[in-house]
Amino acid sequence: MNFKETSQYNLLKKHSVFLNGMSIKDLFSDNPKRFEEFSTSLGDIVFDYSKNQLDKKAMDFLIKMAESLDLKLKIRDMFDGVKINFTEKRAVLHTALRDNLTKSIKVDGINVIDDIKKNFDAMAEFVNDVRDGKFKGATGERILDVVNIGIGGSYLGAKMAIEALKPYKTPLINFHFISNIDGTDISEVLKKIEPETTLFVVASKTFTTDETMTNANSAKKWLVEKLGEKAVKNHFCALSTNKKLAGEFGIPEIQVFPFGDYVGGRYSMWGTIGLPICMAIGVDNFKKFLGGANLADEHFRNTDFDKNIPVLMALVSIWNINFLETVAEAVLPYDNYLKYLPLYLQQLVMESNGKSVDKNGNPIKYQTSPIIFGDEGTNGQHSFYQLLHQGTEKILCDFIIPVFSHNEIGEHQLKLLANGIAQTEALMKGKTKAEAEEELRGQGMSDAEIKKLLPYKEFTGNRPSNTFLIKRITPETLGMLVAFYEHKTFVEGVFWDINSFDQFGVELGKQLAKNIVRDLKSDEIITSHDSSTNGLINMVKTLREDM
Ligand code: G6Q
Question: What is the DSSP pairing of strand 465-470 with strand 395-402?
Answer without folding.
Answer: parallel
